[in-house]
Amino acid sequence: MTFATLRRNRESYIDRARSSYDGSFKRNGVDLIEGHAEFVDSHTVSVNGELIRAKHIVIATGAHPSIPSIPGAELGGSSDDVFAWEELPESVAILGAGYIAVELAGVLHTFGVKTDLFRSSRSSFTWFLILTSLKVWSRKWKEQTYHFTLTKSLSS
């Protein structure tokens, strides 16, 4: 598989997932309201200043990448940006070691990108996540070499 094929497959998957959610909401009589929401009480939310009452309320927050406040951050990007790349770089440094970072490191490394993974936390849970993710990847892909660095700061 090429990176371009992976990008196309990813976009198709996202489109199917969104369509599936939309269809499921409609079939189940769920109103989807987008905007900034906060609870007023146990049965009321304020969405963009409008009060909405319901017996059951679900707020799906979604997630967005967090760009660290470090020198040189403007030279980097987020995990979302990777899939906009037309060409892969020779090397990449990934900051963070959550499942998205570790899986992205595995994907890029599989495509031949020299991948370094940086994480500032020294928690044992972080290492558990990294090692568990790598164990899964090693079953799916050929033996890989990964570079891990624990750091409190980065410099060029």
Description:
This protein has 156 residues and is of the alpha/beta class. The protein has helices at 3-27, 79-82, 99-110, 124-140, and strands spanning 37-41, 44-47, 50-53, 91-95, 114-119, 147-150. The strands form two sheets. A three-stranded antiparallel sheet has the order 1-2-3, with no helix packed on it. The longest helix is centred in the first third of the chain and has 25 residues, at 3-27. 8% of the residues are buried.
Record the SSE blueprint.
Blueprint lengths: L2 H25 L9 E5 L2 E4 L2 E4 L25 H4 L8 E5 L3 H12 L3 E6 L4 H17 L6 E4 L6
Helix pairs in contact: 3-4
Quick structural summary:
37% of the residues lie in helices and 18% in strands.
Please supply descriptive tags for the structure shown above.
3-stranded antiparallel β-sheet, single chain, 156 residues, 4 helices, 3-stranded parallel β-sheet, alpha/beta
Q: SS-based structural class?
A: alpha/beta
Shape: extended
Radius of gyration over all CA atoms, rounded: 20 Å
SSE order: HEEEHEHEHE
Taking the alpha carbons of the first and last residues, their distance comes to 33 Å
Largest sheet properties: 3 strands, antiparallel
Averaged pLDDT, please?
79
Count of helical segments? 4
Instruction: Tell me the strand order in the biggest sheet.
Output: 1-2-3
Please give the share of residues in helix.
25-40%
Q: What's the total count of β strands?
A: 6
Query: What fraction of residues sit in β-strands?
Result: 15-25%
Low-pLDDT sequence parts: none
